[in-house]
Structure formats: C-alpha cells, structure tokens
Specification:
Layout (H helix, E strand, L loop, with lengths): L2 E5 H12 L41 E12 L2 E9 L10 E7 L6 E7 L10 E9 L3 E9 L5 E8 L10 E3 L19 E2 L5 E2 L5 E9 L2 E9 L5 E3 L5 E3 L5 E10 L15 E9 L4 E10 L4 E4 L18 E8 L4 E8 L5 H7 L1 E2 L1 E2 L3 E5 L6 E5 L7 E12 L3 E5 L6 E9 L7 E2 L7 H7 L8 E10 L7 E9 L5 E8 L14 E5 L8 E8 L2 E6 L4 E6 L11 E6 L5 E10 L8 H5 L1
The structure holds 2,5-dideoxy-2,5-imino-D-mannitol (DQQ).
Amino acid sequence: MALMIFSLRIFFFLSVLLSFGVIELEGSHHACSNLLNLELPSTCQAKEPYRTGYHFQPPKNWINDPNGPLIYKNVYHHFYQYNPHGVAWSPNIVWAHSTSNDLVNWIPHDDALNPSEPFDINGCWSGSATILPGEKPAIFYTGINSENEQVQNLAFPKNLSDPFLREWVKIPQNPLMIPTEANQINADSFRDPSTAWLGSDNRWRLVIGSKQNQTGLAILYMSEDFLHWTRVNHTFHSAKENGMWECPDFFPVSNSSPIGLDTSTNGPDVKHVLKVSLFDTAKEYYTIGTYNLDKDLYNPDKGSEESDLGLRYDYGKFYASKSFFDSAKNRRILWGWSNESSSANDDIKKGWSGLQTIPRTILLDESGKQLVQWPIEELEKLRTKQVRLPRIVIEGGSLHEVLGVTAAQADIEVTFEISDFEKTEVLDPSWTDPQILCSKKDASVYGGLGPFGLLVLASESLQEYTAVFYRIFKSHNNKYVVLMCSDQSRSSLNENNDKTTYGAFVDVDPVHEKLSLRSLIDHSIVESFGGEGKACITARVYPTLAVDGYTSLYTFNYGKEGVKITGSAWSMRTAKINRSRKEENE
Ligand code: DQQ
C-alpha cells in the first residue's frame, strides 16, 4: 500500500502551533536549516538544494526572458536573456543559446547575440524569431544603442546548413526601427518585437511593446521586404492604466480543432490572442479576439481585457512569456520566465537566479473563452516509478502521504470527485479577487467543500510545506465557483523569501465535471495546472528542511465534506540541461 494514513488533527495542531512559534522542533532535520551557509552537516546531502532537476537553467548567473524560440531542421532553439557576469539583471544583457531534440534535454552553445555594435552596444534585449519563406530563420531583437535608446535590429544565421544555428550575423542596415519625435515613440519605451506575420497582401507585420503616459501600447509596423519597416499610423491595440507593455505576443488559435497554427494563419476558423507583459506589476494578461486584416486592427472579445478581470496564462511567478509554432508537431508552445522569490543575498549564495518554466502546449478551450495549457508530452519521458493512488474518499480532516516517490522532484496528477455539495460555503459577492481570497482562506482555514489538494515540498513534521488546493463555493445565483490556490505562506522557515499566496478561479462545473490537478515539483519550483490546464499557478519556494530526501508529498482535505481522489505520482529523472559533454559521460 503506497499510502499511509495520518491523523490530521495532529498535523494541523502541530503546524499551527509551529507556525505561531508555540512549539520548536528539534531533531536531525533541523540541523539542515542553514543550507545556504554552505557549512553542511553530512546528513544534508544537498549542496545546491534549490537547483532544479528538469527545469531549464544554466549552470550559473542570472537569466530572464525566453527569446525567439524556434524549430529549425528538427532542432529546437531556445535563446534567453542572460547576464554572463553575475546573478542580478544588468542592462548589457546577452542572448544565450541552447538547443534540444525534445524540449527537455538541452545542450549549450556560444551566445547568439552580444552587445557589439553602436545599435546594441549597451545590451541585446528581448525579441522573437520568424521563419521566412524558404525555411530561413530571422531574429528581431531590441538593441540598446550608444545613446541608450531602444531600437529594433535584425540578425540572420551565418550558416543555414548548421542545424544548431551557432552563429548569427547582425545585418549592416541596423537599426531598422527607431524611436523619433516624429513617430512619437519614447526611446525608453520601445521594445520586444514580436514574431512577424504575413498578410494576404504579402506584407509583413509585427508589433512592438510601448506606452504613452500610462496607456500600454502595441505598436504595429509593416514591411514589404522585411528590411524596410514603417509604423502604421493607428494603434493596433492599447489599454489605459496599464503602463509599459513588454514582450507582446500575437498569434492565431484554431476554434475548430486541437492543433496549433502558424503565426500567419487567418480565416473563419481562427481566433487571435494578444498577450502583453506589464512592467509595472510583473503580471501578464492575454485577450482573445478578432484580427481584422483589412483594417489591421485587433479587437478583443467582449469581457476580454488587460486587467485583473481578464485572463492570465499563469497566476503565479511567470513573466515575459513567448510562444512559437512547432511545425514538426503542429502545436503552439509557450514558455515563460519564473523569477526567484528569494532575496538578492540568497541569490548570490546560490550563484544563480531565474528559471524557465516547462514548455506548455496551448490551445483554445472548447468554450472559446480562454486558453488551456498543458506541459509538453515529452516531459513524460522523465517519469519513473509510478505510484498509483488508491481510489478512496479522503474524508474531511485527513491527510495521506504519497510514499514511494522522490517528493522533491516529482510529477503528480490527481482527479477529485465530489458527490455531496451540502456543506458548500456561500461566496460573499465581495470576494472577487482570487488571490486575496486564497490569502484570507489559506490552507490552514477549515472550510465546507475544501480546502482539498496537495501538500508538496513538505518537511517531516510539517513545519514547511506548500499547499496547492481547491475550495468550492456557491454563488448567489446558485452556481458553483471553484477557487484554486497555491499557498506559500509556510513554504520555508527562511523569512527572507516572498511568500505571496496566489489564486485563480477555475471555470469547471464540479457537479458535472471532474476536477483535476497536476503539479510539477522540482526543488524550488512548483508548477500547478488546475482544471486540465484552465488555470495555472507557478510558485517559487525555498524550503530549509524539506530538501531532497527529507521531502514528503501528501494529499489532504480540510473541508467538512469527503472528496474522492484518484491519480498517480511519478518520480522525475533529472534532465540533461546545459551540461558539458564531459559531464554527460560521467
Ligand atoms: N526584459 C528585457 C526587455 C523586456 C524585459 C530586458 C521583460 O527587453 O522588456 O532584459 O522582462
């Protein structure tokens, strides 16, 4: 029997007392709590407790945005913002470069773009790739020029017969788009060109992030030859009170079949998505709408907007995301930067900062009202030692340990079924903000239907854990409302971390549909997918006790109503990420 049943009251009692400092725990695990001091007792095996096993990260230093993902000759290319000189962001950042056959294992290459010319001497900032006719990749990126202005530059591969595209040549005509008084673009707010798309009039378009006063702007440029670009006079799309829009991503999605579409696709079965990253709040919003190619205007559908009333890819630590069309598998793939929640000092001790999330396939949901995301299927190759959870009802107030998995590096997928809704709490109409609701009603607050879900990266006596869970409410119009939370408040005894609790409403009807939850747990990151990818929350956590072999995984239910659970958990193998060939042979 893979699960052991614990008495829950003890857990809650213990954890509440612990969190209020009423009980202090002693014991062998406690000695591991200073992992960052590097004076590790021999029992604490983890020299780098927070380095991930299957998420993309280079061996050291700072990374941020994914840039210009593309597939070329069946090789996936990942470029990313990288500071080769330290663990903090620096303006003279470069485009680092890795390639992969499966989007899981990666080999490093030399940097693709370094500051070198007057048009980018102060930094090679974010941008995107476009595959031109004849399978010719091109990269548009923002250069910080010698005057510290943001300008847009173009680069091509030096050798198209090299599937690894190891060398890139910046064209001598750069910069191709510049901010001027005449075009009324502010030189500090003109960056991150999107992938270009081709209209039926044979002209190329791309959008660039900007702002005017506090209005976020997506500025449209057009070109006939990919070299000469002119700003289109009207605004492609904008939103008030947003501040600077970074990293705009504009792409089509199919509303008739579960496939991804090339960026230039348009037509009756197509909707469009515009994603923007808000510099002021570090949140991303996306809208679903209609792209009118004749007028070159994007109109979000009613109710789709760039605000907390709108849609987010991820309600946790996820920013500056970028998608691309994978022509080998007819899918669109999205990934984003997951910034640290640790202090700058702890980053220095770690020697690195920033991860990329697991690439996700994105599709338009059947409702047409939102996207759904799911970790790429290739990730499942890393799954091993499957543990099947016995199909049981977890009674209200119980906690079950999932034994037999490496809980610090795992993948767990469960489904909850509810048959009795009698004790559902009523949703107060003022509870409109899911993040605030999750903070008020964190995992320790008993409820009617929920909280139920997972305790991940949990220490032996539950002094530390991250809780990913659901609560179900009934609204005044008698509809059930599903709230998904990722509660980091007890994730670490180290008080220097940002432990914000995140939340999202999930559009699932729990009376007629099963409610699923998948969490990818990888030492310092927990990526959770609720309602089969309708809501995603990524959290960064730094346990001091729940490290490597000292980590446990639980299912729990602290509601009054029992919930039936089924599913599996897997230990995850370590991916080969940016290791040198020598290390790979070891
Ligand atoms: N990061 C880049 C910018 C972009 C920002 C600089 C978003 O191009 O706007 O590293 O994180």
